[in-house]
Amino acid sequence: MKFAIALIVLAAIGLAVSYMISPLRTFNTLVPKDKGSSKVAEGQAYGSDRRQMLDIYAPDGAREAARPVVVFFYGGSWNSGTRAGYDFAGHALASRGFVAVVPDYRLVPEIRFPEFIEDGAAAVRWVRQNIASFGGDPDRIVLMGHSAGAYIAAMLATDPQWLGDDRGAVQGLVGLAGPYDFFPFDTAASIAAFGDWPRGEETQPITYADGSAPPALLLTGEEDTVVKPRNSEALSTTLADAGVGAEMVTYPGVDHIDILVALARPLRGRAPVLEDASRFIANVTANDEAAPKSEDTMSARTGSLAERQGLR
Predict the structure, then answer these.
(1) Closest by alpha carbon to 172, among 150, 140, 201?
(2) DSSP code, position 66
(3) Quick one: which of 209, 255, 253, 200 has its CA closest to 233?
(4) Of 177, 310, 158, 145, residue with least CA distance to 251
(5) Cα(238)–Cα(236) distance, integer angstroms
(6) Do residues 75 and 149 lie in contact, with contact meaning Cβ atoms separated by under 8 Å?
(7) What are the pLDDT digits (tens) for 173-204?
(8) What's the whole-model pTM score?
């Protein structure tokens, strides 16, 4: 009996220490994952650095056709994070019928802007070349991310220099609490990541937002004080003014972390993040190869999320 109690105490101490070191990784370990999905590949190298690896999640069961692909970039102020803490996100997206890819990328202080974007681009190119082997459609990719990861996704979606011709496979952008318009830099994290670049405006997704961008769904929390909702509002407005189908959704009572953990199965009551994102992804990746991808077509395909969900 004493031995069992001692084991419980040690386990509790271990969890407490783990939480202090990496709260999100501990959350990921404890939270129930979605059924009907599996991690089908782990530690796939898309580059030579130890941080240039990715995991892949897919729906269970036989498939009749290649599935849309979601590349999910996690956040962490460009200086922290690991794909090992995001099984819950990968399983959540795969449970909705998508092949989900979660890459690591190099971090500050080892690197600075634009290396983490270069890693994101390399991961997407790897997906284009290899995802068919895992049931994904390399021509139907949606870029998604939270916080600093949403920044990476937005830069890849809006600035053509990073993906080149592969940008044509990007059907949409889903940003969760992303910083898109934050120059001049006024936080330690942004100064560390971007402060050495001589022309700060070149680091901003808002700079490149034009009619060539894919449709966008920008989700934010009303109570987010880390990355304020004005970032999503600025990018959404700029894209819409350029003729791109763009929608911003603000969740009341939701903060910077709430919007991420709402992807996890037990916490979806906080905000319909997975439902909103899944509906958008399914819409923009619908198999309509006969339709030309003009700006008008992309806008029409995306439509207004609020209208489609009866929110307005």
Answers:
(1) 140
(2) P
(3) 209
(4) 177
(5) 6
(6) yes
(7) 999 999 999 999 999 999 999 999 999 999 99
(8) 0.87
Q: Dump pLDDT digits (tens) for 61-119.
A: 867 789 999 999 999 999 999 999 999 999 999 999 999 999 999 999 999 999 999 99
The pLDDT of residue 20 is 47
The C-alpha atoms of residue 140 and residue 168 are separated, in whole angstroms, by 9
- What percent of the chain is modeled with pLDDT above 70? 85
**Taking Cα atoms as reference points, which of 223, 271, 258 lies closest to residue 27?**
258
Which DSSP state fits 114? Answer: T
Could you read off the pLDDT of 219-271 as tens digits, one per residue? 999 999 999 999 999 999 999 999 999 999 999 999 999 999 999 999 999 99
Tokens for 281?
């992804």
CA 202 to chain centre: 21
Q: Which amino acid is at 91?
A: H
Of the chain, the end-to-end C-alpha distance in Å amounts to 59
Helix H segments across 31-184?
87-95, 115-130, 148-158
Strands across the sheet containing 53-59: 37-45, 53-59, 99-103, 67-73, 136-146, 170-176, 216-221, 246-251
Contact 177, 221 (CB under 8 A): yes
Rounded Cα–Cα distance for residues 102 and 306 (Å) = 28
Token duo for residue 236: 């959404």
DSSP secondary structure letters along 153-183: HHHHHH-TTTTGGGGGGEEEEEEES---S-P
Show the tokens assigned to 163: 């993906």
193 token code pair: 């990541």
Q: Which residue has the tokens 């100064």?
A: 191
Nearest to 248 by CA among 154, 132, 116: 154
Indicate whether 16 pLDDT > 60.
Answer: no
**CATH superfamily to which 35-286+293-308 belongs:** Alpha/Beta hydrolase fold, catalytic domain (3.40.50.1820)
